[in-house]
Amino acid sequence: MSDLSAAFHEAWRLVASLDPALLEIVGLSVQVSLSAVAIASLIGLPLGAAIAVGRFPGRQALIVFLNALMGLPPVVVGLVVYLLLSRAGPLGTLGILFTPAAMVIAQAVLVTPIIAALSRQILEDAWHEYEEQLRSLGAARYTAALTLLWDSRYSLVTIVLAGFGRAAAEVGAVMIVGGNIDGVTRVMTTAIALETSKGDLPLALALGLVLITLVILLNAFASSIRALAVHRYG
Amino acid sequence: MLPLALENVSYAVDGKAILDQVTVEIGAGPRTVILGPNGAGKSVLMRICHGLLAPTSGCVRWLGANGSRRQAMVFQRPVMLRRSVLGNAMYGLKLAGLARGERELRARDVLEAVGLERQADQPARQLSGGEQQKLALARAWSLGPEVLFLDEPTANLDPVATREVESIIGQIRASGTKIIMTTHNLGQARRLGDEILFISGGRLLERAPVDGFFVQPATAEAAAFIRGELPWT
C-alpha cells in the first residue's frame, strides 16, 4: 500500500516538475497522434461525405465494411503495417520502420475508418434534411458534399477529437511498428507498458495521469464546442 | 421557359400510385394554385414539376426557351444552413456563379425586401418559423426565378406570419415571377390563386379560374372538398 502511495507521490512530482523525460514522451505522443489524425481526417472526412451523398452499387456493403473496420484490433494493424514497411516488404525501401513516421501511418490506418464511418453517419443524416433544398438551389453532389461538411463542422470536430483519443490511447500498433525505442519512438502508452513491466511505477503512473487528463480535456473541449455551436447555430 | 407541360405523368412508390396520369399545361401569367386534401399528391406533383423527382412514367417538358435553371422552390419546412441570415441568402447566388461582391449586394436587397435586413448577421437557425420562411422566400427570390414553386408555404405558420409570407409572395409575383403553389387552405387559394388545379387521389380532377371553381365546382369531389373545408378557412 505504501508502495502505491509512494508511487503516486513520485508520479505527481514528475508531472509537477515537468520532468524532461516525461515531457519528451508526452510530446512525441501528441505529435505522432496529431499527425495521424490530420492524415486520417484528410482521407476520412471526404470519404464519409462521398459515401453519404453518393448512390452507387455496393454502397451498403461498403458502409458495413467501414463500420466493421472501426473495430480493427490495433495489434493487427501494427502487424500489417510492420509487414508492409519491413525490409522485405513492398514499402521496405522507404526505411521508415521503427521511426515515428511508421507510427503515424499505423495510427492513421487505425483512425481513418473511425472518422470516415462516424462522419458518414452524421453527414447522411444532414443530407436527408438538406437534399431537396440543396438540389433545388442547383447544388451538384460535389458542392452538396462540401456544404454538408461545412454545415456539420461542429459535430465533425467531435469525431476528429474522438479519433485523436483513440490514436493517443492505443498501444499495440505503435509498439510493433515503432519498437518503443527510448528517445526515438517511445510514446505514453508504450512507455507505460514498459515501465510497468520493469517495475518503475512512478513514471508509468505519471504518464497514465497525463494520458487520462489529456483524454478528459479533449472530451471537455469537444462537448463545449458542441454546446457553443448548438447555442449559436441551432 | 414556360409553358410547362406534363403528359400522362404518373408516380408510384412500391407499386402504390401517388399520381395517376396527370396531363396539364401550365402557362405564364395567372397564379396557379394546386388545391386538394392532404395526401392527394400535391407535393409530389410539385416536386416532379421542379425536377426533384422523376415521374415513374410520362414526361415533363418546358416548352419555352432556356428551360433549365431559372426556377426555384420554397418548401413547407425551410432548411436553414448553419450560417448567418446573409450567408443563407448568398448561398444560392454562389451556386448560380455570381461574384462575391454582387452576391452580397443582391442578398442584402432581397433581405430588405422581405424585412430581414436587421437580422442579416444573426444565425439563421435562431430565427422564428415565420422569419425562416421569409428567408427561404428571399433565398429563392434572389435567384430571379421565372417560376417559383411554393409547397404549402404557410402550413406551419401563425396568422401574422402567414399574412407576411402571403404579402411577400405578392411582391415576388409583382416582380414578374410565375407563382405555382400548393395549399389545402381554401382561403389562401382564393387570396393567392388565379386558377385552381384540383387534385384528389392522385388525379387531376378539375382546372378552373378561381371564381368559377368556388362558385360552381364541376366535380362532386371538389364540391365536397369546398363544403367540408369551408368552416375552417
How does this model look, in words?
The complex is a heterodimer of chains A (234) and B (233). Chain A has 234 residues and is mostly helical. Chain A has one domain: MetI-like fold (Orthogonal Bundle). Helices cover 80% and strands 0% of the residues of chain A. Chain A has helices spanning 2-16, 20-53, 59-69, 74-85, 100-136, 141-151, 153-169, 172-178, 188-198, 201-233. In chain A, helix 5 runs antiparallel to helix 7 (153-169) and helix 5 packs across helix 8. The N and C termini of chain A lie far apart (51 Å). The model of chain A has no long low-confidence stretch (mean pLDDT 93). With 233 residues, chain B is α/β, with parallel strands linked by helices. Chain B has a single domain (4-232), classed as Rossmann fold. Chain B is built from 8 helices and 9 strands. Chain B has helices spanning 42-50, 85-95, 100-114, 129-141, 159-174, 186-192, 210-215, 220-229; strands at residues 4-13, 16-26, 32-35, 57-62, 71-74, 147-151, 178-183, 195-200, 203-209. Chain B has a 6-stranded mixed sheet with strand order 5-6-7-3-8-9, with helices on both faces. In chain B, strand 8 (195-200) and strand 9 (203-209) form a beta hairpin. The longest helix of chain B is centred in the last third of the chain and has 16 residues, at 159-174. The model of chain B has no long low-confidence stretch (mean pLDDT 93). Chain A binds chain B through residues 129-130, 132-139, 143, 147, 151-153, 229, 232-234, and chain B through 47, 50, 52, 69, 72-73, 75, 78-83, 91-92, 95-96, 123, 125-126, 139, 143.
